[in-house]
Design goal:
Helix content is about 40%, strand content about 25%. The protein is elongated. It is built from four helices and eleven strands.
C-alpha cells in the first residue's frame, strides 16, 4: 500500500512542478492600478461646518480629499508607447473637481511620465513602462465620491485594479496547502509504523515520529502567516522607493 502511494507521489510531484513552472513563465502584459490612499485633507465637525470656510490655494473648497493612485506593470513584459492606441483616462464623477494633480514615487526615477487634468479627469500620455516599474498620481479632489473609472485602449491588455496573486488571496488554496502538509505527515508516520526486518529498525523508525509531528507546527504557521508577510514585504518594498 505504502509503496503504491510513494510511486504515485513520485509520479505526480514532477508533473505539478512542471505545471507551476509553466504558469509562472508564461508571457503576460499587465498594467494595474490601486488606490493606496483616499482620505480627507481636513475633517470638520458637522456642528460648526457652516461657520467655517476651507481655502486651498486661495480658492474656497468644500470637502478636499487626498487620493493617491499607483500604476504598476505587474506583468512580465514591457509596455511600449506604440502599444497605446489611446491615452489612459481616469474619469471621476461630474460633481468632482480636481484641484491639483502631481506625480511621485517614479520607479525608475527617469520614467518619462506626462499627464494633464481638467475638472474631473486625468489623462496619462503613452509611455514606456517595463516590468515592475511604477508611478503614483497624487490628486487633491473636492467633492470626491470615492469612485472613478478608467478609459484605455492598449494592445494586448486592459488597465485593471490590482489583484493579489491567487496563492495569497485564495482561502481554498491555503486550506488545500494545509491539508497537503497533514497528509504528508500522516504518510511519513504510516511509513515509520510499517514493520521492518529487525526490532531495532522498527524502534528507530518510531523515534522519528515525534520529529514529523513537530514539523507540522512551523509548516502550518508559515501557511497561515505568509499572506500577511507578503503584504508587509510589498509595503516595505514600495516605501523604500
Amino acid at each position: 500500500m505504502l509503496k503504491t502511494i510513494t510511486n504515485t507521489l513520485l509520479f505526480l510531484i514532477p508533473i505539478l512542478v512542471m505545471i507551476f513552472i509553466a504558469l509562472f513563465q508564461r508571457k503576460t502584459k499587465k498594467l494595474s492600478y490601486e488606490v493606496i490612499l483616499d482620505t480627507p485633507l481636513v475633517t470638520v465637525s458637522s456642528k460648526i461646518k457652516d461657520k467655517i470656510k476651507i481655502y486651498f490655494d486661495s480658492k474656497v473648497v468644500e470637502n478636499p480629499q487626498l487620493v493617491i493612485v499607483r500604476f504598476t506593470n505587474t506583468g512580465n513584459q514591457p509596455i511600449s508607447k506604440s502599444d497605446f492606441e489611446e491615452n489612459i483616462v481616469l474619469k471621476f464623477s461630474d460633481i468632482s473637481q480636481i484641484i491639483q494633480c502631481d506625480a511621485s514615487e517614479l520607479f525608475p526615477e527617469n520614467l518619462r511620465l506626462e499627464f494633464n487634468h481638467d475638472q474631473n479627469s486625468v489623462t496619462i500620455n503613452p509611455l514606456l513602462i517595463n516590468e515592475r516599474e511604477s508611478f503614483n498620481l497624487n490628486l487633491i479632489i473636492d467633492n470626491h465620491n470615492f469612485d472613478f473609472y478608467i478609459i484605455d485602449r492598449i494592445k494586448g491588455l486592459r488597465v485593471e485594479k490590482y489583484k493579489e496573486p491567487f496563492f495569497i488571496s485564495s482561502t481554498w488554496f491555503n486550506i488545500l496547502l494545509t491539508l497537503s502538509v497533514y497528509l504528508l505527515i500522516i504518510f511519513l508516520i504510516l511509513y515509520n509504523l510499517e514493520p521492518v526486518a529487525t526490532p531495532e529498525g522498527f524502534i528507530n523508525r518510531l523515534n522519528n515520529i515525534p520529529i514529523y509531528v513537530l514539523m507540522t507546527v512551523p509548516a502550518i504557521l508559515v501557511i497561515n502567516f505568509y499572506p500577511s508577510m507578503y503584504r508587509f514585504i510589498r509595503k516595505i518594498k514600495y516605501s523604500r522607493r
